């Protein structure tokens, strides 16, 4: 059964919240590109794998406030909390714009701001 892009993103994110980064990565294209606006760009699934291993010391907690799908794009707005290297939980607001290709997540443009 083919999932629509919105359902695909929801299913993929469920793997992240369970700490299953490899399960999440099965929903990404091999040449996926993640751009964190104002910070860095990750090229390819291996770079994303390495980022997740460092950034997701403990599985992040998501609150998705809006999920908007149009064509090959899904935009997620919400809040995320993650632990940093010191074990302190940091809260962020985010807007992720995902581009899908043939049912997989091919590109992410992420706007992430630490909330006070």
From TrEMBL:
Q: Which domain of life is it from?
A: Bacteria
All copies of the SnoaL-like domain together span 13-107
Family annotation (Gene3D superfamilies):
3.10.450.50
State a single Pfam family of this protein.
SnoaL_2
SUPFAM superfamilies named among the record's database cross-references: NTF2-like
The molecule here is called: Nuclear transport factor 2 family protein
Q: What species is this protein from?
A: Arcticibacter tournemirensis
